[in-house]
Amino acid sequence: MKTFLFTLLTALFLLQPARANAAGWVDEVIGWFSELFAEPSRAAVVATAPTVNIDSLRSTPLGILLNRIPSSDTLAVRYNWPFASADARGEVARYERLLRQTILLTDPTNKLPLSADAVRVIYQPGHRPGYFLDLLARFTDVQEVVFSDLVADVLKVSPALPTVILVDDAQFTGTLPWYLELGGAADQQTTVVHFGPVDRLAGVPGDWSVINCPLRSKESEAFLAQALVGAELIDARLSTTTPAFAAGAGFRLTGDRTGFRLPEQLGVDREELEKIDYQINRGIRYRAMPGAQLLVMKGGQVVYEKAYGHQVYRKQAVNNADLYDLASVTKAASTSLAVMKLYDRGELALKKRVRDYLPEFKRNLVGRYRIDQLLSHHTGLQPNLPIGPLISRQFTADESSPEYPYPLGPGKWLGREIPGAVKNALTGQLEYTKKPMHQYSDLNYYLLQLIVERVSGESLDEFVRANFYAPMGLRRLTYKPNATFPAHRIVPTIDEPWMRGGLLRGDVHDEGAALLGGVGGHAGLFGNAHDLGQLFQLLNNRGSYHGKEYLRPETVALFTGHGPYNYRALAFDRLAGRWGGAHEYGVSTNTIGHLGYTGTSVWADPDNDLVYVLLTNRVNPDPTNAKFREMAIRSHVSRVVYRALDTWEVNS
């Protein structure tokens, strides 16, 4: 009976679907049982397995688990920012005091800050640093390792990753501290973060980095996670000599990367920002949208990041890592940036016409329009792509094949000839005005997509990924997210069974972008609020991000400045032109951004060094639901954000 029970439990464990963010085997075993009775968290590696031949670990199920690099799903963070607090003033004081007392005791040259795509974190059982892991996971993938006697052996057959060892007030009782057992196994790029008196640090290998903080708290965990990746400054010195370090020891660890700050540190009273919660929760309560993400950045730092509600009504709470269908925000976050990059390179001129880049339209209506007219929606072309005749089930199949390669919805695939048919439709009868005039049109940005792809020789999605998203570390901005993200991390939009096959989750809602294979100049981009906010901080920074120039300042000024034809900027919407009461609340006339049909929005105000993002899926399950617009949720959010600026000094 015992043999049967053991065999049954082992089989059930091995048949469990592998979690994308799992990092080891014991948490897979212990956690498999314990999660029945406790709140689940990201899986951690715990090496307490029976002794086995080290050389054989790689080929066993255990070895496979140990060698699994964490995936991007580790970014499913547990907390909002700032962390819940009943005493903001005390939290700010504690954060700043502990930061002043935190010392980098070793030379960080070529070691810190960490820049790897994944980092290993080792800590003692019962001491999981939840806040530290949560903040670190917003910058990189995290492999958790709970220390035990076998960790050193396990690491010998694990991937070589930069390693952070968290130590709580190591006590010396005649034996070596536990973490020194890892000296011959941990990656050379290892950092010990010690919480406690600095004089208790001794015997650390000379090639390891050492950081000491006097107290472990949620505040110190938060700023240390950021300091390790260059998002917080450490610059203290040791005041007295210890057995391992001389007085005056200490090195500067720069913090020039965008990170997270308590709102009060940037002059914002969090109680004022929390008034946004009422507006968003009210919208959820009255079924204007199932849920939302909000991000507010001030001075290049995140001061407020929060997830609300559910992905669909009453099912699966929204996480700050979830991806939303950005709809027409794609125009600003993809196509406009691509055009700016080509202009920056001298490969595209604003006064040239469509026919200069797409000669097949030389004798066609659309060939006559200039690039700056397309950007500004000043052509008078019809609002939508000419796709009416192509919206038919006859162009779909229930299985993928070379003839039906494009995913259209759950169990539905689009014929390979359809994207070309959309382009061919531009040679037919189009609606237009006799003289160019302002009329918002997806067709303008589809034409820009064709031009970008012709000039660059790359598809639009590959071009923006290679030139912006990937080098900026924005892994959560992407077209066709189903290819790289698990379904539960993508927020669904409409439920359309007729042609699309049902509930759309990761397949673009916009019909035009769907018929283009999922990549459109006007729609198709997915993302979360955090990465979208970082992208627009690039514009506030006049084209630079983390010390690297992506666009020349002159290019940013030209494309974000007041356009030549209408109220819009050359390549973006302008908040002051869209919202009549903007000036009353301090909105700069230079605030640019965009809205999306699915209930999305992003705004960047360079004069106030402010970026804020609101993402919703208000089209779920019914796109005709008008409550989101009628309740003016986006306007209310904008008003609260601006009213919260510069309130901390007044109220303190």
* Largest sheet properties: 7 strands, mixed
What is the CATH top level name of the largest domain? Alpha Beta
CATH superfamily of the largest domain: DD-peptidase/beta-lactamase superfamily
Oligomer: single chain
The 3D shape can be described as globular
Give the termini separation: 69 Å
Instruction: Examine the coordinates and then state which fold CATH places here, giving the name of the CATH topology of the largest domain.
Output: Beta-lactamase
Q: Strand order, biggest sheet?
A: 1-4-3-5-6-7-2
Rg over C-alpha atoms, rounded to the nearest angstrom? 27 Å
Structural class: alpha+beta
Number of domains: 2
Question: Low-confidence segments, ≥5 residues, pLDDT <50?
Answer: 1-43, 47-51
- The proportion of residues in beta strands is 15-25%
The name of the CATH architecture of the largest domain is 3-Layer(aba) Sandwich
Query: Which percent bin holds the helix content?
Result: 25-40%
Count of alpha and pi helical runs = 22
User: Using DSSP, what is the number of strands?
Assistant: 24
Mean pLDDT: 88
Report on the structure:
The protein has 652 residues and is of the alpha+beta class. The chain folds into 2 domains: 75-257, 3-Layer(aba) Sandwich (Rossmann fold); 275-651, DD-peptidase/beta-lactamase superfamily (Beta-lactamase). 29% of the residues lie in helices and 16% in strands. It contains 22 helices and 24 strands. A 7-stranded mixed beta sheet has the order 1-4-3-5-6-7-2. Strands 10-9-8-24-23-22-21 form a 7-stranded antiparallel beta sheet, with helices on both faces. A 3-stranded antiparallel beta sheet has the order 11-18-15. It starts with a helix and ends with a helix.
